[in-house]
């Protein structure tokens, strides 16, 4: 009422407004600014619509703008500090568990981050409401227009996280998640329809309370299911959910300005408990993986022990049974050879004796390759050196066996040992038989990844007159095949005699 005339001013905007007179430093929501000139008399008539925000709580107040701004910050300072701290806490949680998800690809961390992200959005909007200088999302969607979306997003991500954390134990949690999903979809659609249709605020507030009540009921039922769960970490879900439900129920009693803060206290407690639970879960999984590794090592050791015992038994049986039989057969054949005068018959018997002798030698090589005590590289060197010295001395040749002295604890399996041994025998026999050398030298060296064997003599070398294949002998073919079976490579060349160079990966 101004100068006896009724002036109607409607204020319906719930979005941030700046003080057009420049008195307030920042903008506020639901404030109407009136500028009164000096000596001006102005009667104010206010009609208040009760939208059931709380009895007596939404009665308009008239005050000086500067006084109002100072009192606002004084009254809300602690709440602003609390909410700001919460924002930083949840951002920290997002960083920690976001990295966990990136590196582990465990979907539980992704669900937790989505829950934290939706909670962070709500918390940020609370902070905007308390600290209008931070207005950002409010310019596009007011708090009242987004309450249903807030509740649905936070509660849905929360429930999905809890269900996956408990590994759907009990299975009825799956049915609960399906019901929740359909309800959340319908709630979002209905709220969007209300916004588009400009449904009155009172009806929307009733719908919002219904959504909160239904979600809280679902939460309580899920809390009971979690209590029945046999999951070892279910107690953390029960504890966090109980605190959150208690805060949510309590918040419904108080005025909306305090309701959100009480709900957030429950959310913060929930985040602390859930973060502890996830850390324990991570440690538990780590210990389980370590136990699996130890069990695998134990099983592998048991298999190797069983394999070693089996190989030793087979080797002993071969040595005791076949070796004794072949030796006895040779003894009998020598007796037959001494009493028989038929030359053709004697030649046949000598061939049989030769075959038996070769079989005994091969049998000893097989038994030697099965002996795991010879897997040590130095033991292997000693055996190769003994064979080399035996042949060299028997044929009255000079030369020496040399090897390096590094990585002496290196292991070499029986398959490679036997093939390298046979390659050395073939190369030495070829050199003695065809090269007519007076000196033979063998050089054995190894690294962590390769084994090298060089056999060098001062004989006439390889016969290169055969232009088709100067390396076509049976001994050379056998060496090539054995080296290939080991995944290695071999080269033959003349250099003041024959040279054989073998390289095999270990």
Question: What would you note in describing this structure?
Answer:
- Mean pLDDT is 78; it is low at 466-470.
- The longest helix has 84 residues, at 256-339.
- The chain has helices at 65-104, 107-130, 143-165, 172-196, 201-228, 234-251, 256-339, 343-370, 377-394, 414-435, 474-485; strands at residues 401-403, 440-446, 450-457, 489-494, 498-505.
- The chain is elongated and about 150 Å long.
- A hairpin with a 3-residue loop joins strand 4 and strand 5 (498-505).
- The protein has 11 helices and 5 strands, in the order H-H-H-H-H-H-H-H-H-E-H-E-E-H-E-E.
- Strands 1-2-3-5-4 form a 5-stranded mixed sheet, covered by helices on one side.
- The protein is of the alpha+beta class.
- The protein is 64% helix and 6% strand.
Cα distance spanning the termini: 101 Å
Unreliable parts:
466-470
Apparent shape = elongated
Beta percentage is: 5-15%
Give the H and E element order. HHHHHHHHHEHEEHEE
Computed CA radius of gyration, to the nearest angstrom: 45 Å
Major β-sheet, in short? 5 strands, mixed
Trace the largest sheet across and list its strands: 1-2-3-5-4
Kindly name the structural category: alpha+beta
The average pLDDT value, as a whole number, equals 78
The counted number of beta strands is 5
Defining traits:
506 residues, alpha+beta, five-stranded mixed β-sheet, 64% helix
Summarize the helices and strands and which ones pair or pack.
Layout: H1 65-104, H2 107-130, H3 143-165, H4 172-196, H5 201-228, H6 234-251, H7 256-339, H8 343-370, H9 377-394, E1 401-403, H10 414-435, E2 440-446, E3 450-457, H11 474-485, E4 489-494, E5 498-505
Parallel strand pairs: 1-2
Antiparallel strand pairs: 2-3, 3-5, 4-5
Helix pairs in contact: 1-2, 1-7, 2-3, 2-7, 3-4, 3-5, 4-5, 5-6, 6-7, 7-8, 8-10, 9-10, 10-11
């Amino acid at each position: 009422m101004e100068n006896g005339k009724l002036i109607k001013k409607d204020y319906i905007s719930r979005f941030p407004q700046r003080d057009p007179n420049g008195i307030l430093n920042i903008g506020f929501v639901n404030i109407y600014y009136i500028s009164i000139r000096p000596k001006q008399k102005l009667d104010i008539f206010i009609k208040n619509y009760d939208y059931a925000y709380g009895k007596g709580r939404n009665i308009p107040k008239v005050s000086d703008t500067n006084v109002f701004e100072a009192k606002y910050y004084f009254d809300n300072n602690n709440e602003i500090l609390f909410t700001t701290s919460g924002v930083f806490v949840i951002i920290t949680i997002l960083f920690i568990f976001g990295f966990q998800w990136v590196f582990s690809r465990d979907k539980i961390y992704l669900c937790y981050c989505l829950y934290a992200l939706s909670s962070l959005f709500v918390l940020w909007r609370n902070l905007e409401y308390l600290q209008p200088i931070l207005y950002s999302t409010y310019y596009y969607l007011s708090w009242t227009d987004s309450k249903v979306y807030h509740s649905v997003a936070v509660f849905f991500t929360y429930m999905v996280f809890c269900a996956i954390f408990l590994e759907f134990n009990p299975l009825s949690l799956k049915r609960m998640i399906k019901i929740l999903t359909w309800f959340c979809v319908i709630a979002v659609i209905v709220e969007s329809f209300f916004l588009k249709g400009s449904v009155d605020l009172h009806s929307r507030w009733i719908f919002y309370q219904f959504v909160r009540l239904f979600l809280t009921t679902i939460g309580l039922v899920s809390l009971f299911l979690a209590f029945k769960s046999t999951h070892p970490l279910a107690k953390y879900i029960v504890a966090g959910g109980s605190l959150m439900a208690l805060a949510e129920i309590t918040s419904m009693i108080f005025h909306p300005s305090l309701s959100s803060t009480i709900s957030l206290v429950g959310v913060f407690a929930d985040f602390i408990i859930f973060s502890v639970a996830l850390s324990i879960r991570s440690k538990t999984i780590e210990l389980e993986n370590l136990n699996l590794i130890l069990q695998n090592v134990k099983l592998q050791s048991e298999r190797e022990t069983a394999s070693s015992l089996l190989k030793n038994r087979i080797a002993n049986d071969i040595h005791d049974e076949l070796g004794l039989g072949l030796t006895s057969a040779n003894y009998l054949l020598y007796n037959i050879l001494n009493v028989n005068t038929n030359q053709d018959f004697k030649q046949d018997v000598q061939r049989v004796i030769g075959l038996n002798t070769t079989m005994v030698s091969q049998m000893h090589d097989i038994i030697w390759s099965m002996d795991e005590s010879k897997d040590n590289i130095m033991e292997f060197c000693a055996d190769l050196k003994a064979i080399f010295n035996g042949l060299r001395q028997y044929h009255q040749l000079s030369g020496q066996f040399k090897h390096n002295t590094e990585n002496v604890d290196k292991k070499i399996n029986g398959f490679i040992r036997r093939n390298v041994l046979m390659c050395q025998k073939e190369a030495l026999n070829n050199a003695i038989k065809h090269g007519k050398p007076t000196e033979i030298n063998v050089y054995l060296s190894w690294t962590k990844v390769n084994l090298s064997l060089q056999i060098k003599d001062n004989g006439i070398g390889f016969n290169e007159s055969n232009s088709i294949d100067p390396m076509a002998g049976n001994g050379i073919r056998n060496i090539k095949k054995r080296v290939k079976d080991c995944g290695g490579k071999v080269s033959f060349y003349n250099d003041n005699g024959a040279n054989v160079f073998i390289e095999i990966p270990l």
